[in-house]
Specification:
The protein has helices at residues 3-44, 48-96, 101-109, 114-129, 134-140, 148-160, 165-226. By secondary structure, the chain is an all-alpha fold. The longest helix is centred in the C-terminal third of the chain and has 62 residues, at 165-226.
Amino acid sequence: MSKKEKKEKNTTETKSRSSSSKNTILILVCNIAVILVGALLVYFYFSYMIIVIFVVVLLLMDYYFYSQRINKKKREQEQREEEFISLITYFKIYLTNGINVYQSLQLASSFLSEWMKEQVDQLLQEIDNDKTINPYLNFASLFSLHHYEDVMTAIYQLVDQGGDPAYMNKFVYTFEKIEEEDNKYRHDKDERGMNIVSALPIVGCCLFTICLTFGIISMLGDFMDVL
């Protein structure tokens, strides 16, 4: 890895850590603000309803920030996986048109994001220095889905066997199978998302009923105290 690439990598990691620290500080400040406001309201207008409301608000707020962080990481990983499928799709097109593996990877990466292009460049550098399967497995390890290793293994075998048609057919079969599984996974994910959206009104009604119940109990308690 060149000094320039190391510098760019360190800059990216620093930005990522800085963004994570800012999010943590934001969550902490919001929690303190909600607790202070809740404490003041309870001190001046003591009511079980106020306590319940602020506990619920605090829990929902923390859940929102936590889920946002998790969803952001998940979206980034899913985007990378989609780019992997796109990369291999372009790679297969170039390969079937008689271009060698090395050049096909270079050309295919030019259609994708800077992140993916950097990873492919790193892969090609490792291939120049290491003729074993390791560079291909290192590249596959960037993605959470383990069966992407099968595709990279098939590409390595294609290189190792000098473009033997049998290994070309094996690569095409492996990739098409994984592409089909990937499409099925995304379809099932969309269906799960629709089911969750459909359930949101029911969850909202339940929360409203709980808050209303606590409000009535609190009012009855205050009324009994007056009597």
